[in-house]
Amino acid sequence: MLEKIHLDQLVFGQSLKMWFVALGVAAGVFLMVRLMRFILVRWLTRSRKKDQKDLYIFFLACTRRINGFCILIVAGYLGLRTLDLPAGMETWSRGIIVIALIVQSALWVNEGITYWFGRYEKSPANGDPSRLTTLRATRVVLRLFLSVIAVLLALDNIPGVEITALVASLGIGGIAVALALQNVLGDLFASLSIVFDKPFFVGDFIIVDSYLGTVENIGLKTTRIRSLSGEQLIFSNNDLLKSRIRNYKRMSERRVVFSIGVTYETPADKLKKVPDMIRVIIDGIDKTRFDRAHFSAYGDFSLNFEIVYYVLDPDYNLYMDIQQEINLRIYRQFQEETIAFAYPTRTLYLNRVAEELYAENT
After folding, report:
1. How far apart are CA 185 and CA 187, in angstroms?
2. CA 338, 342, 348: angle at the middle one, nearest 5?
């Protein structure tokens, strides 16, 4: 009799027995969903090992993203449905379950975005750095848009919250926030400009003012560059676009200008041969295009020749190999023609008559 009276005791307008029933339903639903999730994860894991289809990977990722807290809210809501709740509590419970479903749906959509973009990036046809940079930025924008939509939908389902008034107030407050965060927003829009205008991509070798290196990452606020000496350089996107950027990755060919000097004792006929010698040497090397070679100036201690040619490949190491080969061939050719390279010298001319007069007067 005491047990019956105890179970019939009212708690928040419901008997204690009904509360136990609601708790049992909630616990049963929670455990059942968790068990189903566990079984499904095990089955999808084994299926993925047997058949490497992307579909199994996607469903496995979505199954693992089933949030335990969302399961608990759903189980609690189903348990509360067994009770005769007041109108206010019913409204709040519906709002909470809708918010939980919105959160879970957002997690699944986010997983879908990750899966689709990851699959697209792995495609051999999309290995171009420009496409990869655009894809990564688009993925970030989509995730940000998804988060905003999820938050607005969640707020719209909270009892007493007027989403229209909230959005209007956010619009007014957004002006103040934009003024306070103008530097951050400037970097954000600069990031979008980099993505869509494409002045450089990840992997490009660039020079910014006096800094040079390879682009490692283009973020929403900063761009990271790995310098030749090994350290990482971090630039604000806004400041980066205000600078003069030299992108060597887009160089189709390299123009090379260099000079050599020969001694003043070189005969005129041999001086005339020098430009043709150099033209033959450069034309005989692969991936080069000769432009010109001229006797350009009378130096302080040398007769100077200026040579211009093109390396038909932007690779710096290849350019240095070609320049080295040109220098060696010029050296050997000059040795055969007995043409001497000039180096800093000084010649003193003494006037003998002046010396004798000076000696007599002293």
Report:
1. 5
2. 110
pTM score, whole prediction: 0.50
Establish how many alpha carbons lie within 13 A of residue 138's alpha carbon, considering only the half-sphere containing its beta carbon: 14
Per-residue pLDDT reduced to its tens digit, 317-359: 899 999 999 999 999 999 999 999 998 877 666 666 556 656 6
CA distances from 146 to 62, 95, 139, 187, 345 (A): 16, 20, 10, 21, 75
CA distance 218 to 200: 10
Beta strand 232-236 with 14-15: parallel, antiparallel or unpaired? unpaired
> Where exactly does CATH 3.30.70.100 map onto the chain?
254-336
2, two tokens: 């005491």
Q: Which fold has domain 183-250?
A: SH3 type barrels. (2.30.30)
Q: How far apart are CA 262 and CA 340, in angstroms?
A: 6
Distance CA 66, CA 304 (A): 77
For the domain 254-336, what is the CATH code?
A: 3.30.70.100
